[in-house]
Each structure stands twice: as structure tokens, then as C-alpha cells.
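--- STAGE predict ---
source: upstream dedup step, 1 unique chain passed
mode: sequence only
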Amino acid sequence: MATVTMYSTGVCPYCVQAERLLKSKGVTTIEKIRVDLAPEQRDVMIAKTGRRTVPQIYIGDTHVGGFDDLSALDRAGGLDPLLAA
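--- STAGE serialize ---
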């Protein structure tokens, strides 16, 4: 299974939903980067993704985007193959 990395905060409901969806797909480990606890990581996230909001999710080296993007990818049938890579 591919490595999943998620930029998040402790109070983000979309982060919780993203984690729930990923776990329902069999993901057991998500590397969480808490931008509320390490503000310098928010700058890294913005530089990498061009986005300011959390969650920002990577599956392997692929930037999926936020929860809405993750959910749309799942509905389109693209999430399972990406996780399996």
C-alpha cells in the first residue's frame, strides 16, 4: 500500500473525514504533519501545494488535494488504484 501523508490540524473536521475515508480503504498508517503545532510546516505545505487549507493529502508522491478532492477521486474510482500503487 502507498504511503499516505496528510497536512492537518487538531480541530479540522475535514481532516477527520479524510482519515475516516482512508481507513475505510484499508490505510492503517497516515503520516500526519500538524501545521497548528509546527507553523513552519504550513509554509512548506503552501510551497508544495499552492494551497493554504487543510487537509492536504499525498498518496505516495501524488498530491491528491483536500477532502473534497479525495472524495471525488474515490467516487471516480481512482483512489483504490492510487493506494495500491
